[in-house]
């Protein structure tokens, strides 16, 4: 009987965790918005962005998000096409961001990107060791 009450508790917890997704995906959208805001704030702090640069970055991120949705719909279940579209979109977004930055900001941005890549590689290596 104990096992079944634990099972019910876990099932209930998992079910409640999925409610935001069932309510029109608002939970996922809020998470995305929060991550986007955190990214923007970190860039603003690390790169010492001006207010104008921040507004332009917000527009770039929003356009990239909309393009990602369009790419997803266009590619359907073709993962290779989706992967290629995502790679092209990331490159275009990066180029647009770089165009906004001063030379000093570009140097710091490159450093931050390398640090991020290193962290991702570390996570992948630790995951592969499992």
Q: Can you describe this structure in just a few lines?
A:
By secondary structure, the protein is an all-alpha fold. The chain is built from six helices and no strands.
Verbal overview:
The chain has helices at residues 2-17, 19-22, 26-47, 51-75, 79-100, 103-128. It contains 6 helices and no strands. The radius of gyration is 20 Å and the shape is globular. The two termini are 34 Å apart. Residues 7-24 have low confidence and may be disordered. With 130 residues, it is mainly α. It has one domain.
The counted number of beta strands is 0
Please report which band the strand proportion falls in: under 5%, 5-15%, 15-25%, 25-35%, 35-45% or over 45%: under 5%
C-alpha geometry: globular
The number of distinct helices, counting runs of at least 4 residues, comes to: 6
On the 0 to 100 scale, the average pLDDT is: 83
The domain tally reads 1
Radius of gyration equals 20 Å
Which helices and strands occur, and which strands form pairs?
Elements: H1 2-17, H2 19-22, H3 26-47, H4 51-75, H5 79-100, H6 103-128
List the keywords:
single chain, 130 residues, mainly alpha, 88% helix, 0% strand
